[in-house]
Amino acid sequence: MKKFNFITAIFIFTMLLNSSCKEDFAQWRGINRDGIYQETNLLDQWPENGPEEIWATEIVGTGYASPTVTNDKLFVNGEIDSMSYLFAFNLNGELLWKTPNGKEFFGNGFSATYPGARSAPTVVGDLVYSCSSLGRILCCDVATGKEVWTVEMVKDLGGYENMFGFSESLVVEDGKVYCFPGGVETNFAALDMNTGKPVWTSKALSDTNAYCSPITINLPEKKVLVMSTRHNLLTVDCNSGELLGSYPIVYKYDGEHCNTPIYQDGHIYFVTMDKGACGAVKLKLSDDGTQLTEVWRNEKVKNDFSGFMVLNNKFYTTIKGNWLKALDVETGQVIDSLQNAYGSIIYADNKFITYGRNGTVSLLSEKENKLVENSSFKVQKGNRQHFSHPVIAKGIMYIRHGKALMAYKIK
Fold this sequence. Notes:
This protein has one helix spanning 2-21; strands spanning 25-26, 36-37, 52-57, 68-69, 73-80, 83-90, 95-103, 122-124, 127-131, 136-141, 147-152, 171-173, 176-179, 188-192, 198-202, 215-218, 223-228, 232-237, 243-248, 262-264, 267-271, 280-285, 292-298, 309-311, 314-319, 323-328, 334-339, 343-348, 351-356, 360-367, 370-378, 391-393, 396-401, 404-409. It has 411 residues and is mainly beta. The chain has a five-stranded antiparallel sheet with strand order 1-8-9-10-11, with no helix packed on it. The radius of gyration is 21 Å and the shape is globular. The termini are far apart.
């Protein structure tokens, strides 16, 4: 009996230890940055006026930044009185703390039309990382909001402040914070996640920023960072910062290639918007990350920063003219279309959710291999443009519209 009790006690202690060692991890567009959320048993239909709003707040300030949700907290960036803030709420919508992160972006000329926060925070364990639209990276304690370290990409790393501000949602992995200052000498950088000190810097192609949030890929030979710049899609060695490969992005006007790439089955997918741009593209990536070979492109399917996804052997994105398009991943040809507001798109539990720039949120599915709309409603709270991407966590859908953040029960 004593032996049994001892073994049982050891087992319980080990389980508790393992449980306590599990880190919170949350980032832009879900766990894999692909817009797919691992949720189940979500509603197949919403009520006529939309799902139940369980809480809302209008204190998050100006911006388009999506929230990031962990097991017990929500983090979001916003601007108040010209200052950038990182906000932390509990999952009942109660403000826990807010930490300033320097001046926020207001732009000049046309870009002044779109002031405020852009990027989503990244949470790893007991630290949360935020980037202001002026390129100030802030690392905070999750529990208290206490500043741990800051780095300014322009002043400290020689970065380039572009027309619409920094929009990068930071990748934090393997003890490093990857960032894109966009400078001539320090084009890319990896910072120590605990101190903010540079681990490496990379000149890469000395290209300027294109507002993209990158991904990492574990290849057979190495781990690589994939990022679009103003003129190229690049692969960079995560261990050293060495430029590995590039694919030229054709365009005629802005060079704003904001969408996060997606990697699947040895291929990189992405989509651009500019006049003359390549549109939706599939590239074959070599095992060492040095070769990016075009498989197909569809120049008629374009999206600027609303995201896309690759699943069920299809490539999905919304396009101007208010259509949701599904492309065959083998050929790049459109195989299905649904009239739907142009805007952001996510996926969970065999359902698509789109958030249109007209404020319409739609619940979609595929029936007999055809896209259909199940429900929709209009976002009523908030201000400015409907640019944010929805987030789903624990059966709750979070939508940010300017100064407002809403939580809807969809389970």
